[in-house]
Structures are given as structure tokens and as C-alpha cells.
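Page 42, continued from yesterday. The earlier attempt failed because a stray header line got pasted into the input along with the sequence. Redoing it now with the clean sequence only.
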Amino acid sequence: MNIKLILKTLLLPAATFLLVSALPAGIKMPPDMESVIQKKWPGCQATVITKKIGSEDNTVLYKILQSSEIIGWAYTRRVFSCRAGGCDQQHEASSTTAREYFEYFAILDKKYSILELKVYNYAATHGQEICSKAWLKQFKGYNGSTPLRYGKDIDGISGATI
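This time it went through. C-alpha cells are written below.
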């Protein structure tokens, strides 16, 4: 029997079980995040180290471990934006009734450089271009050490100001 087939058949489901079982109840990994992590680091385990706090803190941070060593990081975030036509200033900042949102995840190496970025839930009426792999790839390798400059370091999307 082919050793690669054995590894795929036995180890991948086991690694997937370990990855998902490390998550506290109520926190679900976004679609595709698990497979992106496993593709980069086969057999690793992702552990939640922060949980959502309050209505505006929409970040869940994960450390990615292999043999108890941190080999990377991942996080998910929900970002709120205004609906087409502008923001309704009468609503409280925490209200989602006047805002749209999108959710994304980022996979980082242990030095905090972006390896992968994906918008996995786009619930807004405009600006879907930010979901494009071609547009998102410009952030790969970015580590936050310098501010990104529109038009020099990154390309914008026309109409994105709404």
C-alpha cells in the first residue's frame, strides 16, 4: 500500500480532530482556516488563546503549535462598515443595524508576518472586490513594522469609501 495514501487516510483525520478538539465550546474555526493551517503545517494544533470580549471585540486569536512549540499564529475578526449611502449617526456605535460587516482570518508565521489572508464571510452590499485572492495577496509578507501607504504599498479599490 502507498505510504502517502496511508498518511492521508490516517493522519489527516487525526490532525483535524486534534485541531478542532483544541477549541473551547462555542468557538468555531472559520471555513477553510483549518485546511490552510494544515496545508502550511501538517499535523499541527491550533489553540484559542483569547475569546471574544464584548460586542465590539470580534477577534479570536489562536496559537499554532507543533510538538509544544509555537510555529505560527492565526486570528479571526469581524469588521463593521457603513451601509451604502453612509453611516446612520443616530445608532449607537455597538449597534449593527446601521452597519454591514465582513469576517476574515489571517495566518501568520511566528514572527507575525502574514502568510495567508482570506475574507470568508462578506455580508455587505458593496465592495466584494476585497474578497479577491489577487487583491489580498498584496498583504502577504507584511509584518506591521511600517504603516502601509495607499497607492505606494497597497492598491485601493474604487468605491471602497462607502
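Notes: The chain has a mean pLDDT of 75.
Reminder to self: strip header lines before submitting.
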